[in-house]
Write a structure and sequence with these properties.
It holds the Pfam family E1-E2_ATPase. This protein has about 550 residues and is α+β, with helices and mostly antiparallel strands. Helix content is about 50%, strand content about 20%.
């Protein structure tokens, strides 16, 4: 996988797609950090599947070897505290060489990608913390090998191994967190169909790739399909679900002259659209691009960490050299070397450069797995200090799927007839309101659905029943157009404050509206627990909605 050039002249990371600044070798993969380099190798993006499986096992093998190194060096520490016999001295040498043997695989498996990344950043003129890590690990290993060969002195094999394992784990988690956040955005782009039906001047329909369509062409979209482009309805009527963009669970009716958004779902009707914006300029692409751009913005703590990291290696190197000089002058060069090594090793875990981005990206990926796209790391940081929380209702406090809150009847004696006929008509439609009525009346016995059911897209259903004539189910406007009047009981009920602003589906026959279904949104089951948690944190709550 080769690197991709971005609009701002930076290069996209071959693993997580974040920018990589500096000089990159053309035709070669580029990685923004050591974690991405290691994760890309582990996931086996390229190469033989057997090699990919081995790379996936390398981290586990390194952990196993590190545990053995720690066990052997702990035994060496106990020997350093007591006088040793010749047998004990030989056993200490055995432990040293055993630790050396187990350390070698860790250096080969985890040290190689770290060294590759450190030198790649050095070629780009960056003194990264990876270089500091590599220096510390190399120094610990060299001093330990010298002590092993001399059969005396301290060994630091466990330090080198533990640093490599912990840093690799942290960077890998950080890299996979970034990848999961990117995958959530990629899933949005996959909503659009790969191929579209283009209608030419002769009226013939041709199936072509979506990317080949141009502005001004006519595209046909059938019921149940995603609208591929931003466009304008030329012919036909349809019911479109735009909840993804507007947050409103109620589908909207679209007719000739109305604009539609690419990525919305055509629930009913056969639409002929004129393409007004190509794929890259559509509403969905602009939304994804906006989220991607915001995702690259770093928060206050990340910027602070980056600023400090640029000076971290020179400062630690200077401190280590100063420590070596002072202790060599006051004692001897071996003491100075060990003390300077301690300075480098203590700085190696580097929570400044590891913990800050790891925490941010772990939170972003966890939110993405739950369907929440956080705008940026800065937004996540500022979230911790909020005192007021304003909720969006649809899709946040509610599931986004409509449900029937109540059923009203003009006459109590007609309740069974209203239920059975409404259930029968609703069962013949895929509209979200019909599905809600079907769930509400589940278990209701209804007559067999007539063959001659007329579906008026976005408005309602009509069917002929023996003895009743035409039975109509649909919106209040549709039933009024069909000449059905609302009786006094339903007029009063529908004018109540708790019903007046709600969507309603009416059913009627023989010139009168016989019943009404009040549509509402189903609250999420976890809402009460979340609200209680917010109140425990003393956060003021509000709801942003057009409802009264």
């Amino acid at each position: 996988m080769t690197a991709v050039r971005l609009a701002d002249d930076s290069t996209a990371c071959s693993y997580c797609s974040l920018p990589v600044y500096g000089t990159v070798q053309p035709g070669e993969p580029a990685y923004c950090c050591f974690g991405c380099r290691f994760a890309a190798e582990v996931t086996g993006a390229t190469g033989d599947s057997g090699e990919a499986r081995w790379l996936a096992a390398s981290l586990g093998l390194s952990v196993f070897c590190t545990m053995n190194v720690v066990m052997l060096t702990m035994a060496l520490w106990s020997y350093a505290a007591v006088p040793r016999s010749p047998f004990e001295a030989g056993l200490a040498d055995f432990l040293r060489y055993g630790a050396l043997l187990f350390t070698a695989p860790v250096l080969l498996l985890l040290g190689r990608p770290l060294a590759t990344n450190a030198f790649a950043q050095l070629r780009r003129g960056l003194l990264s913390t990876d270089l500091l890590l590599l220096t510390g690990v190399a120094a610990a290993y060299v001093v330990s090998v010298a002590s092993t060969v001399r059969s005396g002195g301290h060994v630091y094999y466990e330090v080198a191994c533990v640093i490599l394992v912990l840093v690799t784990l942290g960077r890998w988690l950080e890299a996979t967190g970034r990848l999961q956040a990117s995958v959530a955005l990629d899933d949005l782009e996959r909503l659009l169909p790969d191929q579209v039906r283009v209608v030419n001047g002769a009226g013939c329909v041709e199936l072509i790739p979506r990317t080949a369509a141009i502005v001004g062409q006519s595209v046909r979209v059938l019921a149940g399909e995603r609208i591929p482009f931003d466009g304008r309805v030329q012919r036909g009527r349809g019911v479109v679900d735009e909840q993804f963009f507007t947050g409103e669970s109620a589908p909207v009716e679209r007719q000739p002259g109305d604009a539609v958004l690419g990525g919305s779902l055509n629930l009913e009707g056969d639409l002929l659209l004129e393409v007004t914006a190509q794929d890259s300029a559509g509403a969905l692409s602009r939304l994804v691009d906006a989220v991607r751009s915001a995702r690259l913005k770093k928060g206050h703590y990340q910027l602070l960490a980056d600023c400090c990291s640029q000076w971290f290696f020179p400062v630690i190197a200077a401190a280590s050299l100063a420590t070596f000089g002072v202790h060599t002058w006051r004692s001897d060069w071996e003491t100075g070397l060990l003390t300077a090594l301690s300075v480098v090793l203590i700085a190696c875990p580097c929570a400044l450069a590891l913990a800050t981005p790891l925490a941010v990206w772990a939170a972003l990926s966890a939110a993405a797995r739950r369907g929440v796209l956080i705008r940026s790391g800065e937004a996540l940081e500022r979230l911790a200090g909020i005192r007021t929380l304003c909720w969006d209702k649809t899709g946040t406090l509610t599931t986004g799927s409509p449900c029937i809150r109540m059923m009203l009847c003009e006459e109590v004696a007609e309740r069974d007839a209203v239920e059975s006929l409404a259930a029968a008509l609703a069962s013949g439609s895929t509209h979200v309101y019909s599905a809600a009525i079907g769930r509400f009346l589940e278990g209701t016995t209804h007559p067999t659905l007539p063959v001659d059911v007329a579906t008026i897209s976005g408005r309602g259903l009509r069917a002929e029943w023996p003895g009743l004539g035409t039975v109509t189910l649909g919106s209040p406007r549709f039933l009024a157009e069909c000449g059905l009047s609302v009786g006094p009981v339903l007029q009063v009920a529908l004018a109540r404050s708790d019903v007046a602003d709600a969507a309603c589906v009416l059913v009627g026959w023989q010139g009168k509206v016989r019943g009404a279904f009040v549509v509402d949104e189903e609250p999420r089951p976890e809402v009460d627990a979340v609200i209680d948690s917010c109140r425990t944190l003393q956060i003021d709550l509000a709801v942003l909605t057009g409802d009264r």
